[in-house]
Design goal:
This protein is an alpha/beta fold and 321 residues long. It has helices at residues 15-49, 68-75, 101-113, 124-128, 147-150, 178-181, 194-199, 224-231, 246-254, 284-299, 302-311; strands at 77-81, 85-86, 90-92, 98-99, 116-120, 138-143, 153-155, 160-169, 186-190, 217-221, 241-245, 259-276. It has two domains: 68-161 and 271-311, Periplasmic binding protein-like II (D-Maltodextrin-Binding Protein, domain 2), CATH 3.40.190; 162-269, 3-Layer(aba) Sandwich (D-Maltodextrin-Binding Protein, domain 2), CATH 3.40.190. It is built from eleven helices and twelve strands. The strands form two sheets. Strands 1, 5, 6, 7, 8, 9, 10, 11 and 12 form a nine-stranded mixed sheet that branches. A three-stranded antiparallel sheet has the order 2-3-4. The chain is globular, with a radius of gyration of 34 Å.
């Protein structure tokens, strides 16, 4: 390979001049080497910085999901799921308006967040299963925080407590006490709810309760209302009894459904709002916001007023054993 010093040198050049030019060429090569090193360093820095470190804002691996509370406030809409066939907690009027205790609670939560409610009505088993895939943000549907549900859902503090009771057809005279007369009977309940768990002997919620029904023949429905409708067909036609919230049963009776509540409540359960743990955006800020609002509603008496409006009594404090 031809030497650097000899490149482009005319014939007959004097040795001193050749020496000077040789030194200049060396200096040029040193500068070129320095430039190459700088460029290489820039490439390395660019490659390292392109991975989205924390200095650029946001954390790696969040998939751009962001903050669920922030998304709700920016959109101005809180998407809430509820069961519209569960009066007086939640139901729809003939004009399609949503009414009920849960409805008022959810709308008050949204009001204090400065947003509007958009209602969603998926089936109960879909709500309690979690993994909502971002289809709604919050459930305000009288849900009991059971251990299985806590695996997939975040829960707020309880916003009220209800007694679970049993009802029979109004013509029935054999069943007067659920603690002694429901053994072996066909009992209707909503599927994937605490009433089914109680009859299976698998209920796991705070408080004391006793399993007093032996060998029940459990028939599950999409909602409590569907079970009550089957009981209304006649004593023993499809069902011998139904288990539900005392106030859901009483509401049905007051509306003309031919049923009657028997005996004392079987247990009392806390009911809370829920948020999907696997929400596409970080759910924790929304959990904290909703929990704070519910605590405020307890303290300022709002929940008590709403309970008295829909139930005639204050259910916001735990009752029973």
């Amino acid at each position: 390979m031809q030497s650097i010093e000899g490149i482009g040198c005319p014939e007959g050049i004097e040795s001193g001049e050749a020496s000077i030019k040789g030194k200049n060429n060396v200096h040029r090569m040193q500068r070129l080497a320095s430039l190459v090193a700088v460029l290489a360093a820039l490439v390395v820095v660019s490659a390292c910085g392109g991975g989205g470190g924390s200095a650029g804002g946001g954390s790696a691996g969040d998939g751009g999901g962001g903050d669920l509370l922030q998304q709700v406030k920016e959109s101005g809409v809180l998407r809430v799921s509820t069961d519209p066939a569960y009066p007086p907690q939640s139901f729809q009027t003939e004009t399609g308006d949503f009414k009920g205790f849960d409805i008022d609670v959810a709308e008050e939560i949204a009001k204090r967040m400065g947003v509007e409610v958009e209602w969603q009505t998926p089936s109960w088993d879909v709500i309690t299963a979690g993994n909502w895939n971002g289809r709604w943000d919050l459930s305000v549907g009288s849900m009991t925080p059971t251990p299985d549900r806590r695996k997939v859902l975040h829960f707020s503090p309880a916003y009220y407590y209800v007694p679970a009771a049993a009802a029979v057809h109004e013509s029935n005279t054999d069943i007067t006490d659920p603690a002694t007369d429901l053994d072996g009977k066909t009992i209707g309940v909503c599927g994937a709810c605490t009433y089914e768990a109680y009859l299976e002997g698998a209920l796991d919620i705070p408080g004391e309760y006793e399993y007093v029904v032996e060998n029940p023949q459990i028939r599950t429905y999409d909602t409590d209302s569907s079970a009550i409708q089957d009981l209304a067909l006649g004593d023993g036609v499809r069902l011998d009894a139904v288990m539900s919230s005392l106030y859901t049963l009483e509401e049905a009776r007051k509306s003309g459904t031919p049923i009657k509540v028997v005996g004392d409540p079987l247990f009392y359960e806390p009911l809370a709002a829920a948020i999907d743990k696997e929400a596409p955006a970080d759910p924790q800020p929304l959990v904290e916001e909703v929990s704070s609002i519910i605590n405020e509603m307890h303290q300022d008496g709002t929940l008590t007023k709403l309970s008295e409006k829909w139930y005639g009594i204050d259910l916001t404090k735990k009752q029973g054993a």
